[in-house]
Write a structure and sequence with these properties.
Blueprint: H1 25-35, E1 38-43, E2 46-51, H2 54-61, H3 91-107, H4 113-131, E3 137-138, H5 143-157, H6 166-181, H7 187-190, H8 199-205, H9 208-231, H10 241-250, H11 261-292, H12 294-307, H13 323-336, E4 345-346, E5 351-353, E6 356-358, E7 363-366, H14 368-371, H15 416-433, E8 434-437, E9 448-451, E10 454-457, E11 462-466
Parallel strand pairs: 2-7
Antiparallel strand pairs: 1-2, 3-11, 4-7, 5-6, 8-11, 9-10
Helix pairs in contact: 4-5, 4-15, 5-11, 6-9, 11-13, 11-15, 12-13
Bound molecules: protoporphyrin IX containing FE.
Length: 468
């Protein structure tokens, strides 16, 4: 687009573009200093624009023209190129899936007692498990993962797993494969030249044998669960997302075309893909921040002790009394910027943004990490200070300007209320019962471990002590 006023950015070479590796927040900070709030880089052949300003992110992501995901066939490798699920779909398929999920997450309990009870049950399991580690230094226990998975399983299929269950271990391995080992499958979108290599070489480079294996396992695993739901389906008493979905499939509505078993499997994997690593790592960040800031931790504990008797776990009912905890959770969400550049969007029609033209096909990344450290919104942004979310009378004030850990606009996180409920109940239960601290003569490392497009905490030792 030589005639167009495109966002500025470094010069790029054909085929490789100008990125040496996956871009990390440090690169974005540097590029923003040099080129301003909107800049453009090229990853292979893909033109990407990074938006680093809160108002511009809000403006862009409320536009329909910026609400699609990239139209890359290989994003849908699980379903042989067919668009399905919710995170990566577009148009009517996406609208339908998003509407179905929002309605059902609401009906099945986001904000209702069903889900709260499920989370409470997992909180108890977490507390029981954490007790086993009293006084010993070690990594945060795996029970965090099981608790988060069980909440989604309850919602999706009315089932939960015990800590050492073999099936849940193989399911975790499957999710890990999908998230870490099969990313090579996306490479041809950035480097189309890979499509012209001999087939045996492409298969090897893109690990396509492994991909086929993973695909088979996903459908085998879900196939069994869907079949057992079909056998027990009661149209008057849908128990979970799978039941609701099967009922939609049987309806003769004009949206019926969007519901299929293939799509159901993909949708469920989307819920795990979006809701598992995110929420479990946020809970890890929470424990690590508490270990690093003992004064904040003891203030939270005091607040919990004042509001909740020690013989039972805190619950949603105490939310209005646990205002400082709420502020701490918000500050941890801000400081950790778990998904620093959101999830890719794609421009579907030329638009203007911040004085530049974003042409059709441009990929957009909204940089929450930059907004979360923008001094226009946050005083001393690099300081961990939960009080920034409190007013003078000790009440929590949810600052909205500059804060977007769950994204913004039409694609904003669909599981936000669920994630918030989990973070609240799990953090309250853990801090009521335990104190976190660094191992003797060590400090907690709060710098993130770069992991693809997320900022997860580094694996490290922490001491869990039972509160007397
Ligand atoms: C602390 C935990 C979480 C964080 C920080 C988080 C963050 C995000 C972000 C940044 C996006 C992208 C927004 C965009 O594209 O503009 C997103 C999308 C999404 N999230 Fe979450 N999320 C969390 C937990 C969850 C949970 C628990 C679920 C559901 C079980 C969930 C389901 C989704 C889905 C389905 C999408 C895609 C929405 C769409 O494309 O329409 N997330 N999330």
């Amino acid at each position: 687009h030589p005639a167009k006023n495109l966002p500025p950015g470094p010069l790029s070479l054909p085929i490789i573009g100008n990125l040496k590796r996956v871009i990390v927040p440090e690169d974005v900070r540097k590029l923003r200093k040099r080129y301003g709030d909107i800049f453009r880089v090229k990853a292979g052949c893909v033109d990407m624009t990074y938006i680093c300003n809160f108002n511009l992110m809000k403006e862009a992501f409320t536009k329909t023209e910026c609400s699609d995901r990239p139209h890359w066939k290989n994003l849908h490798f699980l379903t042989d190129g067919r668009e399905s699920g919710v995170i990566l779909t577009n148009g009517e398929q996406w609208q339908n899936a998003r509407r179905f999920l929002l309605r059902n997450l609401r009906d099945l309990g986001m904000g209702k007692s069903f889900l709260e009870a499920a989370i409470q049950e997992e909180a108890q399991m977490l507390v029981n498990d954490f007790r086993k580690y009293d006084g010993k230094a070690g990594h945060l226990p795996m029970s965090i993962n099981i608790a988060i998975l069980n909440v989604i399983w309850q919602l999706v299929a009315s089932r939960r797993y015990e800590l050492n269950d073999k099936e849940i271990q193989s399911f975790i391995a499957l999710l890990k494969f999908l998230q870490e080992d099969v990313v090579s499958v996306f490479l041809p979108s950035f480097f189309p030249i890979l499509n012209y290599l001999p087939r045996f070489l492409t298969r090897k480079l893109l690990k396509l044998d492994l991909v086929d294996d993973v695909k088979q396992n996903v459908f085998k695993f879900m196939g069994n669960i869907i079949e057992s739901h079909k056998a027990k389906l009661d149209p008057d008493n849908p128990r979970d997302v799978i039941d609701e979905y099967l009922l939609e499939m049987n309806k003769k509505s004009n949206t019926a075309a969007f519901f299929s078993e293939l799509d159901l499997t993909r949708t469920i994997f989307d819920l795990f893909g979006a809701g598992f690593d995110t929420t479990s790592n946020m809970l890890r960040w929470m424990c690590l921040y508490m270990a690093a800031y003992p004064d904040v931790q003891s203030n939270v504990q005091k607040e919990i002790d004042d509001a909740v008797p020690r013989d039972r776990l805190p619950s949603q009912q105490e939310k209005s009394q646990l205002q400082y905890l709420e502020a701490v959770i918000h500050e941890v969400l801000r400081m950790s910027s778990l998904i620093p550049f959101g999830v890719s969007h794609c421009v579907t029609q030329d638009i203007q943004l911040g004085g530049y033209v974003l042409p059709k096909g441009m990929i957009l990344q909204g940089c929450s990490v930059i907004s979360h450290e923008d001094p226009n919104y946050w005083q001393n942004p690099h300081k961990f200070n939960p009080n920034r979310f409190m007013d003078d009378s000790g009440k929590f004030v949810p600052q909205k300007e500059g804060f977007l850990p769950f994204g913004t606009g039409r694609r904003q996180c669909l599981g936000e209320s669920l994630a918030r409920m989990e973070l609240f109940i799990f953090s309250a239960a853990l801090l009521q019962n335990f104190t976190f601290s660094p191992p003797t003569s060590k400090v907690i490392d709060l710098s993130p471990r770069a992991f693809l497009l997320a900022q997860f905490p580094k694996f490290q030792d922490i001491v869990i002590t039972i509160r007397k």
